[in-house]
Design a protein that fits this description.
Elements: E1 3-7, H1 13-20, E2 23-27, H2 36-43, E3 48-51, H3 59-63, E4 70-73, H4 83-88, E5 92-94, H5 101-116, H6 119-127, E6 148-152, H7 156-167, E7 171-175, H8 182-188, E8 190-192, H9 195-201, E9 204-207, H10 221-226, E10 232-235, H11 244-252, E11 258-261, E12 280-282, H12 291-310, H13 321-327
Parallel strand pairs: 1-2, 1-3, 3-4, 4-5, 6-7, 6-9, 7-8, 9-10, 10-11, 11-12
Helix pairs in contact: 5-7
The chain binds NADP nicotinamide-adenine-dinucleotide phosphate and glyoxylic acid.
Glyoxylic acid binds at residues 53, 75-77, 100, 287-288.
Length: 328
């Protein structure tokens, strides 16, 4: 008998056909997440779930799905999943690291350039007819070349952003949970700094940590006060890594120069006051949203789900202890 699976997001026909060779597929055909009630109803009786970051995969959901054996998240971040609850129930959780690194780093760098050079603000003003002449002191912005970038969380994406910064002649400071070996720091051209020192020195602070108990509100009122008045905060990690209300206040009071955001605390809702500010560039959580990367992510997530259901080891397992327990 075929495995029953749910694909909770809208994927292309070729991925659904690939899954349908081995599974009975129920799929969300809409470009919006399944609501909670529909998701809870749809997981009853499924063996596998190809999940999106918009799905809260918690103990309640797992209890509604007693046959569930594999949750394949189509994302590298998996803060939407209660991994401990999955592990306790013997459910394998997988994610899609690596393939989205370059796309997300590109967006972080686009936000660095867009905020510093006021790309969106000046586009708006040009369209609104505010450009009436060339003048030496008009529409000034800040240069990126030669400035200091502070990367918080020097993992795959953080490193890819650091590599791009080299091309702009930037000095790169980093703060991360684990420090690189001296030769790795030299090869990447980065220098370790304690978090507060990084915040004090960086012209651009770019966040690349996963969301966890440790990183929730890593940047709050205190940290924003440490940053230079001429600096920019770039967040392509997870919204809740930043205290968004404190950020709105800091931007409104011009305690920092600007911010570039792709992620928000209560997506897709924006913090009150955010859209009224012209020193922030807002993107709708699209770090990995290139044609190339999203197709690869879907393919990888499908491969992980099929491997897990066949009893094979998927390529990227978040809770490998489930597999060793099964084997033991
Ligand atoms: P990664 O390779 O695991 O990198 C994360 C880095 O953060 C690691 O170096 C990790 O240290 C470090 N870290 C973890 N906890 C920390 C802490 N408390 N303090 C300081 N550093 C800490 O992950 P990645 O592939 O670069 O992805 C990073 C995150 O980006 C994802 O989790 C996701 O939330 C987000 N993301 C967003 C988008 C988007 O569309 N905007 C797209 C992709 C990813 P260790 O080396 O010690 O583990
Ligand atoms: C996207 O946000 C991801 O974590 O892949």
């Amino acid at each position: 008998m075929k495995h029953k699976i749910l694909v909770s997001g809208h994927l292309t026909e070729d991925i659904l056909s690939l899954l349908a060779r081995e599974c009975d597929v129920r799929a969300n055909g809409e470009d919006r997440p399944m609501d909670r009630a529909a998701l809870l109803e749809a997981v009853a009786g499924v063996d596998g779930l190809l999940a999106m970051i918009t799905d809260g995969i918690d103990a309640e959901l797992m209890d509604r799905a007693p046959r569930l054996r594999v949750v394949s998240n189509m994302a590298v971040g998996y803060n939407n999943i209660d991994v401990a609850a999955a592990t306790a129930r013997g459910i394998v959780v997988t994610n899609t690291p690596g393939i989205l690194t370059e796309a997300t780093a590109e967006l972080a760098f686009a936000l660095i350039l867009a905020t510093a050079r006021r790309v969106v603000d000046l586009d708006r003003r040009t369209r609104a007819g505010e450009w009436t002449c060339w003048a030496p002191l008009l529409f000034l912005s800040r240069e990126v070349s030669g400035k200091t970038l502070g990367v918080v969380g020097l993992g795959r994406i953080g490193k890819a952003v650091a590599r791009r910064a080299q091309a702009f002649g930037m000095k790169v400071l980093y703060h991360s949970r684990s420090r690189l070996k001296p030769e790795e720091e030299r090869d990447l051209g980065v220098e370790y700094a304690e978090r507060d020192e990084l915040l004090r020195k960086a012209d651009f602070v770019s966040l690349h940590v996963p969301l966890s108990g440790e990183t929730r509100h890593l940047i709050g009122p205190r940290e924003l006060r440490l940053m230079k008045q001429t600096s920019y905060l770039i967040n392509t990690s997870r919204g809740a890594v930043v205290d968004e209300a404190a950020l709105v206040e800091a931007l409104r009071e011009k305690r920092i120069e600007g911010a570039g955001l792709d992620v928000y605390e209560n997506e897709p809702l924006l913090a009150p006051g955010l859209t009224a500010l012209d020193n922030v560039v807002l993107m709708p959580h699209v770090g990995s949203a290139t044609y190339e990367t999203r197709m690869e992510m879907a393919r990888m997530a499908a491969d992980h789900l099929l491997a897990g259901l066949r009893g094979q080891r998927p390529a990227h397992v978040v809770n490998p202890e489930v597999l060793s327990r099964r084997r033991g």
